[in-house]
């Protein structure tokens, strides 16, 4: 995914719409059978943008060597990575078909996404237009006189039964425009590309327009960054930071030999409101605010998205659930594994920023605390397992976190727990990195996906003799509703978690961040003070105790100023009605989770912390009597890790005593802990 795409999902009702007029055509040849028998010409897909002010793409598709008398052309219902129905067929207009010699032939729409062409076995072409006048983000398609951008599923149907055929894409863009696409070039003109099959074609978005470009290498990989729009970015810093992300990701999968591509493309849309990303095989498209580069916190969020989408090139594109490729584009595809595909990718984005030095320890722990807070404020975590939430990604309930748990959020925190516990039970020799390398090595070249059973078995095997403990974590956190024991897991790395309750009143309401309706209540947490007062999702808070409320910021300020157990009259607009409710705020505001290094952390914990996130292990704190020999015995770690006397002597700090030193006995070199 989208590192935070954030609004995805309705359940598979489209197949039950009853709109089929004729059964889709079938052929006697299995997919790929004719391609295996002889080398066939590539289909040719052309797209032009002659009248951009009309927001219409002109598309021409040429087909040859197709068996039978008729061929069905089918437009996908969805875009992989964005689990929502596209309804792209609504904007296809004026489709006509003709033979290669120009003779018109019949083309008939037989259901909402399928067009049937009667070609009599001859090569043929189809032409049509696609309207895309509203910018729908980096997962959609759009055209105006400034630029054109499209994900292929919005423009290009596939020949049913022949998705394995090679395709040549030719793009005729706007005058003076650059064409950005991660597909291999076909020829030297820069506007023709080649794909091995339909899946590869639509997994490479195309941007056409004037862009600023940044090119750099990280290891053996050539990177291209195309920026549409203006912003306060530095080419040098952006290249340097993306290089750090790349190098850190390579290390997780065993170095440069584990990189599955030789070039990678970032398409960045700098637009107000932009904040999402969508992964592809060797590229990503990301939307971001134009001026975030001067705001360290906002820029770090962008880097998190960049790391998330880059990591997806391994996790989801190569390590993937079985149903996510080859894709069934004609229907909604469900999997119970998005907590792993998206949640673990979110975890690694956080880890990568820490290890790459792009987030300080304080910044990383603050971000982690926010994730814990988000999960703990979600009543849905007690009603829906993370597997169920993954399966129902297409159908998120209207009342949000009251009945639904975010698989990005909880999946990330499950990854953290598994990582730390694997490091503990293996004495630092195995970790989540080890498991990801194992999964990648076993599945990257098979062409097959992984099942939930295979995924769990791989984790249990990594636990070795303590595999039952890993199985128990799956039972509690993945299959069940047990609360994640954050304090217990983070203590292994020397961190403590403090719950700090904000002062002031609290009605347990979530207001829409941006709304032209005033203080719009997006969510009323069930069981909270607002729920008890009779407030509902979608209400607009108009006044408190007769004083008008201008917007969400003022509403939050006024509620925070309320005394606990006091009574207040709330005026709300519900639809066309103005009504009043009496609310009694709870004492104290929301809980914040503060994560910090424990001053009394042991040397073993410091070693684990450094191996985990790369933060340098300080010398043991006063009062800590743990010996280096104990750390070596537990972690079998590299003696150079941590801050210790250069002569190898052990620093012993007895409780309340003075430092003493003694020389250690000679021993064989120890293996370094797993990264």
UniProtKB/TrEMBL annotation:
<dbReference type="InterPro" id="IPR036034">
    <property type="entry name" value="PDZ_sf"/>
</dbReference>
<dbReference type="InterPro" id="IPR024191">
    <property type="entry name" value="Peptidase_M61"/>
</dbReference>
<dbReference type="InterPro" id="IPR001478">
    <property type="entry name" value="PDZ"/>
</dbReference>
<feature type="compositionally biased region" description="Basic residues">
    <location>
        <begin position="657"/>
        <end position="675"/>
    </location>
</feature>
<feature type="domain" description="PDZ">
    <location>
        <begin position="496"/>
        <end position="560"/>
    </location>
</feature>
<feature type="region of interest" description="Disordered">
    <location>
        <begin position="639"/>
        <end position="675"/>
    </location>
</feature>
<dbReference type="Pfam" id="PF17899">
    <property type="entry name" value="Peptidase_M61_N"/>
</dbReference>
<protein>
    <submittedName>
        <fullName>PDZ domain-containing protein</fullName>
    </submittedName>
</protein>
<dbReference type="InterPro" id="IPR040756">
    <property type="entry name" value="Peptidase_M61_N"/>
</dbReference>
<keyword id="KW-0732">Signal</keyword>
<feature type="signal peptide">
    <location>
        <begin position="1"/>
        <end position="29"/>
    </location>
</feature>
<dbReference type="Pfam" id="PF05299">
    <property type="entry name" value="Peptidase_M61"/>
</dbReference>
<dbReference type="Pfam" id="PF13180">
    <property type="entry name" value="PDZ_2"/>
</dbReference>
<dbReference type="InterPro" id="IPR007963">
    <property type="entry name" value="Peptidase_M61_catalytic"/>
</dbReference>
<dbReference type="InterPro" id="IPR027268">
    <property type="entry name" value="Peptidase_M4/M1_CTD_sf"/>
</dbReference>
């Amino acid at each position: 995914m989208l590192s935070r795409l954030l609004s995805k999902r309705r359940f598979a009702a489209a197949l039950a719409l009853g709109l089929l007029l004729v059964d889709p055509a079938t052929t006697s040849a299995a997919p790929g059978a004719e391609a295996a028998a002889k080398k066939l010409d590539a289909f040719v897909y052309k797209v032009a943008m002659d009248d951009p002010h009309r927001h219409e793409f002109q598309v021409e598709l040429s087909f040859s060597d197709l068996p039978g008398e008729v061929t069905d052309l089918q437009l996908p219902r969805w875009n992989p990575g964005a689990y929502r129905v596209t309804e792209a067929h609504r904007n296809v207009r004026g489709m006509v078909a003709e033979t290669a010699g120009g003779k018109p032939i019949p083309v008939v729409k037989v259901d909402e996404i399928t067009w049937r062409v009667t070609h009599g076995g001859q090569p043929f072409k189809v032409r049509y237009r696609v309207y895309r006048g509203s910018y729908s983000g980096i997962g959609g398609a759009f055209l105006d006189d400034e630029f054109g951008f499209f994900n292929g599923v919005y423009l290009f149907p596939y020949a049913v039964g022949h998705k394995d055929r090679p395709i040549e894409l030719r793009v005729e863009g706007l005058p003076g425009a650059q064409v950005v696409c991660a597909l291999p070039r076909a020829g030297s003109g820069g506007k023709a590309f080649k794909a091995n099959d339909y899946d590869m074609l639509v997994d490479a978005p195309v941007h056409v327009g004037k862009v600023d470009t940044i090119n750099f290498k990280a290891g053996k990989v050539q990177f291209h960054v195309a920026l549409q729009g203006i912003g306060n970015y530095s080419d040098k810093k952006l290249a340097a930071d993306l290089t750090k992300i790349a190098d850190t990701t390579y290390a997780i999968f065993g170095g440069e030999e584990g990189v599955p591509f030789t070039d990678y493309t970032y398409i960045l849309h700098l637009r107000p409101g932009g904040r999402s990303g969508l992964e592809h095989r060797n590229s990503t498209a990301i939307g971001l605010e134009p001026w975030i580069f001067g705001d360290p916190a906002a820029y770090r969020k962008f880097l998190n998205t960049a790391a998330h989408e880059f990591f997806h090139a391994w996790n989801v594109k190569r390590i993937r659930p079985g149903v996510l490729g080859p894709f069934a584009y004609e229907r909604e595809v469900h999997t119970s594994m998005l907590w792993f595909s998206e949640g673990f990718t979110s975890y690694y984005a956080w880890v990568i920023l820490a290890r790459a030095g792009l987030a300080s320890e304080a910044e990383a722990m603050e971000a982690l605390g926010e994730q814990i807070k988000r999960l703990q404020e979600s009543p849905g975590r007690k009603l829906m397992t993370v597997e169920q939430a993954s399966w129902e990604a297409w159908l998120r309930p209207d009342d949000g976190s009251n009945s639904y748990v975010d698989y990005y959020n909880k999946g990330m925190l499950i990854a953290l727990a598994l990582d730390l516990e694997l490091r503990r039970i293996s004495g630092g020799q195995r970790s989540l990195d080890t498991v990801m390398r194992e999964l990648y090595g076993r599945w990257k070249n098979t062409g097959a996906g992984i099942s939930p059973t295979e995924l769990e078995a791989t984790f249990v095997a990594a636990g070795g003799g303590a595999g039952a403990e890993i199985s128990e974590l799956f039972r509690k956190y993945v299959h069940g509703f047990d609360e994640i024991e954050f304090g217990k897991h983070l203590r292994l790395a020397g961190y403590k978690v403090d719950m700090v309750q904000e002062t002031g009143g609290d009605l347990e309401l979530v207001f829409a961040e941006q709304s032209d309706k005033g203080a719009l209540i997006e969510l009323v947490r069930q069981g909270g003070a607002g729920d008890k007062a009779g407030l509902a999702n979608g209400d607009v808070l108009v006044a408190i105790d007769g004083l008008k409320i201008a917007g969400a910021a003022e509403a939050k300020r006024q509620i925070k100023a309320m005394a606990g157990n006091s009574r207040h009259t709330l005026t709300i607009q519900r639809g066309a009605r103005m009504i009043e409710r009496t609310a009694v705020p709870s004492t104290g505001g929301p809980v914040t989770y503060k994560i910090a290094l424990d001053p009394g952390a042991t040397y073993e914990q410091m070693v684990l912390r450094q191996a985990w996130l790369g933060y340098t292990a300080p010398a043991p704190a006063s009062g800590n009597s743990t010996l280096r020999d104990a750390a070596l015995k537990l972690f079998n770690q590299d003696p150079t890790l941590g801050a210790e006397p250069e002569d190898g002597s052990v620093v012993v700090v007895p409780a309340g005593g003075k430092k003493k030193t003694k020389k250690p006995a000679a021993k064989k070199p120890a293996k370094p802990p797993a990264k």
